[in-house]
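Postdoc handover notes: sequence design on the structure in folder B. Input tokens:
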């Protein structure tokens, strides 16, 4: 789950990291009031930032400076309602504009293959790190945190020195460690600060870092969906303005669903069986339209929800149902399929294979309802591919 910059910044603040203050506004008038407060507190300018769950807001025109309350209101009015990468901006963050001396990049990501948190730092901040990784890979420094001990002092110092933080290296060490704590406290997949910035504080800075401070100017946090059950308080950070309707339906129904690019919709119980089914569809010459695991003990209503998810994709022109009945009862699934088909708006050919618990009853029900069935998985995949227009060669 992605969370908004303002919420990500709250999580960083709670770990004691330096984040300049901000307010969130939903209207231009609210933005004006927030700007007035920041200007009254001594800011020369304010920054207005679109709160949308995509990167590159700056380039898209979603980050702007303003020098007066009037200008802040006008700028916020332009940003609110603007579309950034197909997402409509509904809120903006308003903060005293930072006087940036230099921008850096620092992030913590879950490195699944190493089973550790990986810190990535670079003196090339403010730009997309993917570009840095391609153009100048040597400009990025990596450190793995220890799962028990966190990021050790010498590792954090290595990062800070490689990032060329100069007199701000101590602040860099503290921030790097704070990112690891943030990852661990909330089971995050990613905590990214881009830019981490040296900013001037009231008056000119000097080479030794006095009058300057290292702060988190932007923050991006992604939480591990599978761990959200352990953090009920984070549920409040879900932004209903931006959740994809398909993802929302899948989450509410308790179905694991990942949309892919093919034409054959797959409804399967069990993640391993779902992957195998997708492999067999490919081997039979087709392309799966999705990964879908309806989970154990799925009942008729869940089957109907799965069908809606699959059919929401207009590219789907055939459906393969592969159920291995254990706790999941074959006859329940068959009833769900019959009900779902009677409700569905689009008639798409379907091939059903159900084995295991109550498969005889399932077969009888499906036969009565004139469903196309298959005995083996290979046969089911072949039939689904044949039924799919795109792959029928
Ligand atoms: P992103 O484009 O979505 O990553 O949004 P950022 O918050 O990273 O902002 C993009 C760029 O806008 C930053 O790299 C900065 O150069 C600039 N920017 C953001 N906040 C400020 C600020 O407070 N003052 C100034 N001068 N520039 C800012
Ligand atoms: Mn950024």
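Designed sequence:
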């Amino acid at each position: 789950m992605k969370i908004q910059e303002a919420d990500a910044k709250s999580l960083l603040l709670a770990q004691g990291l330096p984040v300049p203050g901000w307010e969130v506004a939903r209207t231009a008038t609210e933005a004006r009031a927030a700007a007035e407060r920041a200007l009254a507190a001594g800011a020369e300018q304010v920054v207005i930032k679109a709160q949308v769950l995509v990167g590159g807001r700056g380039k898209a025109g979603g980050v702007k400076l303003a020098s007066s309350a009037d200008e802040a209101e006008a700028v916020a009015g332009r940003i609110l309602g603007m579309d950034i990468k197909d997402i409509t901006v509904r809120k903006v963050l308003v903060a005293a504009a930072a006087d940036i001396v230099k921008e850096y990049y620092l992030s913590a990501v879950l490195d699944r293959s190493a089973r550790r948190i990986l810190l990535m730092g670079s003196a090339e901040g403010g730009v997309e790190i993917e570009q840095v990784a391609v153009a100048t890979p040597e400009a990025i420094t990596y450190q793995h945190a220890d799962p028990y001990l966190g990021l050790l002092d010498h590792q954090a110092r290595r990062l800070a020195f490689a990032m060329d933080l100069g007199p701000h290296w101590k602040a860099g060490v503290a921030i790097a460690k704070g990112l690891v704590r943030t990852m661990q406290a909330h089971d995050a997949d990613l905590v990214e600060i881009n830019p981490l910035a040296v900013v001037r504080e009231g008056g000119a800075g000097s080479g030794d870092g006095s009058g300057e401070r290292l702060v988190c100017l932007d923050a991006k946090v992604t939480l591990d969906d599978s761990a959200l059950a352990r953090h009920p308080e984070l549920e409040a950070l879900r932004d209903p303005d931006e959740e994809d309707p398909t993802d929302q339906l899948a989450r509410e129904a308790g179905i694991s669903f990942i949309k892919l690019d093919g034409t054959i919709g797959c409804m399967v119980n069990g993640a391993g069986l779902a992957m195998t089914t997708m492999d067999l569809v490919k081997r039979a010459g087709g392309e799966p339209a999705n990964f879908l695991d309806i989970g154990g003990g799925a009942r008729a209503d869940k089957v109907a929800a799965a069908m809606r998810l699959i059919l929401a994709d207009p590219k789907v022109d055939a459906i393969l149902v592969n159920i291995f009945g254990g706790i999941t009862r074959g006859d329940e699934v068959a009833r769900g399929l019959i009900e779902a088909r009677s409700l569905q708006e689009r008639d798409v050919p379907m091939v059903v294979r159900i084995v295991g618990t109550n498969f005889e009853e399932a077969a009888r029900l499906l036969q009565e309802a004139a469903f196309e069935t298959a005995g083996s998985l290979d046969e089911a995949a072949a039939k689904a591919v044949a039924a799919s227009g795109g792959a029928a060669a």
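Context for whoever picks this up: The domain at 245-387 is CATH 3.40.50.261 (Rossmann fold). Don't rerun without checking with the PI first.
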